[in-house]
Amino acid sequence: MSRPPTTSTDAAARPFRTVNPGPAAGAPDGVEGLALIKPAVRAQSAYTLSAPAARRKLNQNESPWDVPPALKREVLAAAEAAAWHRYPEFAPPELLAALADHYGWTPDGVLVGNGSNELIQATLATTLEAGDVVIAPAPTFSLYRLLTGVLGGRYRPVPLGPDFAYDVDALVEAAARERARVVVLNSPNNPTGSALPGGAIERLLEETGALVVCDEAYQEFGGPTALPLLRETSRVVVLRTFSKALGLAGLRFGLALAHPAVARELAKGKLPYNVNVVTLAAAAAALRHGDELAERVRLIVEQRARLVDGLSRLPALAVYPSAANFVLIRCLRQPARDVFRRLLDEHGILVRDVSSGSDLAQCLRISVGTADDVDAVVAALGQITDGER
Ligand SMILES: Cc1ncc(COP(=O)(O)O)c(C=O)c1O
Predict the structure, then answer these.
(1) pTM, rounded to two decimals
(2) Which residues is 344 bridged to in the sheet?
(3) Could you tell me if the CB of 367 is within 6 A of ligand 1?
């Protein structure tokens, strides 16, 4: 085998360096460049998150546990054996077969992505023409609105009902009236935790002509799945992620399940080679360790019940029912912003402050963590809200 060329000593002696130019003194103000950005894009708020370090990180609905050490070792061994100078396969056939088996679908109807967010993007990119309407409940995951705007669609949010329960009548009515191209349903819904009631997707399919995209990022934690409907219609796309129940948020892996003819078209909206060799190996390993990871989901569901129970005893909070791995609360007697700050500053607990949304006034979202995390959050909120009876 020919040996790779060695690095020239000259180059090695001069490590790559850039001169930090400092603040953009004298740089142009950006007006000319900005004028070329689509107005619909400039009108959107960016998806950002500033997350200070904290002892207990309960702000992104991640698994509280790193993956089992054996799983990590398998992935590292596969990564070591892989050729890093070669592009990955789009998706190894064995992985597609294992995914199809896991979700009860056919390998040619499975599309893998660098996180499921990428597949939301591919789905909207391949379906929306300028001005097409996307219907989704409100509040929900903010990325749907952002991507619809970037892609030139019109986003039409439909408010959830009392206690953030899904209002299926209103969704059906709006989708039919607006002749929606796409309806996006996140169930259980982020950030409310609400699960779709049985029969909701069937009604949307019967009473509208829309593609129904079911983002089931949190489905393992509760609520119905749309997977069986894949056998009955080609107007359903189901999105799944390995970031939550399977604990692989750091490696970015998600998938779309759709009719094979639809999946082939959605694939055109993705970039090639988007899932790297390490992630492909990790996805396969996670499926092999499925039972162990499923046991963790069971533990989280148990802790969710304890969290809801503990928080429901605090009179200064309203607690909403959740089928996911997080719980939404409303602060009834103090600004949510203050409660968020005190949780972080005084107790080292980072939750998600979602209270800036008009429909989420005074709300915080708390990821379900370990039993110890749950005890700590309940005790801390008890202390913070105690003076406010
Ligand atoms: C509704 C929803 N969909 C998808 C995702 C996850 O996406 P990804 O698979 O890209 O990590 C999240 C994560 O926060 C989410 O809340």
Answers:
(1) 0.93
(2) none
(3) no
